[in-house]
Amino acid sequence: MKKNNALYLISRIREAANKFIVQELEANGLKGVVPSHGDILVVLYGCDKCTMKELAQKIHRTKATLTVLVDKLIALKLIEKEKSPQDNRVTYIRLTPLGQSYKGIFEKISDELNNKLFKGFSDDETKNLVELLQKTRANIE
Amino acid sequence: MKKNNALYLISRIREAANKFIVQELEANGLKGVVPSHGDILVVLYGCDKCTMKELAQKIHRTKATLTVLVDKLIALKLIEKEKSPQDNRVTYIRLTPLGQSYKGIFEKISDELNNKLFKGFSDDETKNLVELLQKTRANIE
DNA sequence: TGATAATAGTTAGATATCGAACTATAATAA
DNA sequence: TTATTATAGTTCGATATCTAACTATTATCA
Questions:
Q1: Interface test with A, best of B129, B130, B134 (most A CBs within 10 A)
Q2: CATH number of this structure's domain B6-140, picked from the four choices 1.25.40.10, 1.10.10.10, 3.40.50.1010, 1.50.10.10
Q3: How far is A91 from chain B (nearest CA, A)?
Q4: Cβ neighbours of residue A109 under 8 Å, at least 6 residues apart?
Q5: How far is the CA of B85 from the C1' of C8 (A)?
Q6: Tens digits of per-residue pLDDT, A50-87?
């Protein structure tokens, strides 16, 4: 634990970054939205529609968790459900116009967060960090 | 989000590491113990006793959360509470002999985790990663 | 001293999260 | 075709986590 505190630092960074995201979302009118909700919306900004299963995989949460998260985003009128005509088991999720309208906000927050996190980093340092993190991830996942 | 996925990698690493910890704890007889519980025990391996407030700060959780976590560890007979004679508001937490007995297990799991995470890393790479993470943390916290 | 403020810890209510069990539908095999 | 198996999604029960409100005790200040 003392010998190498990389994991401790990783936890602190992640927690602080999540806090930043939640604060910024609230400051931009999205109160009660947590990073996982944001992950869902960001996935949907990159594709027209998405099944529950695909969404769960992409945000690295179980289907059970996703059900709860999706219910909340529906209550906030940011996304909506739609039954697949081909396969009645499948539910598609897509953004509402309101959900679409927040795309710019999410891009802005993402940029601000990255600027903040890596302020003062040279291009080499950023590249180096990402490579080392990729290597770490490959070791553990 | 695409420009720089360092934070994404950080989340994945943290999640995988936590999973590893939970699995190893269970394999060593500590079923239902999550990393936060482990954090409490690890703090207590480094000091004789600790107040609730100090513990909460050290594991980076609120006092309310700590109350729940401590209750569980007491139920597992790994720690115990003790009222301060000087100040009746204060509660000390200390390890039971059973809790003490797991010290070696925690050290072993910590070592194994670090070996796994940073397998194939040169000393320079490890040092470099930690420095970059420290810099990142300083930027965001 | 007596009132007010500060501090330690718990409780209450909400929510994200998970695994396991469940329902409903589709695909496959006998 | 019918039975079995696989898949998509939800529900249930448990728990970690937070904020806000609360209780109890100690410290401060007028």
A1: B129
A2: 1.10.10.10
A3: 26
A4: A21, A24, A25, A28
A5: 14
A6: 999 999 999 999 999 999 999 999 999 999 999 999 99
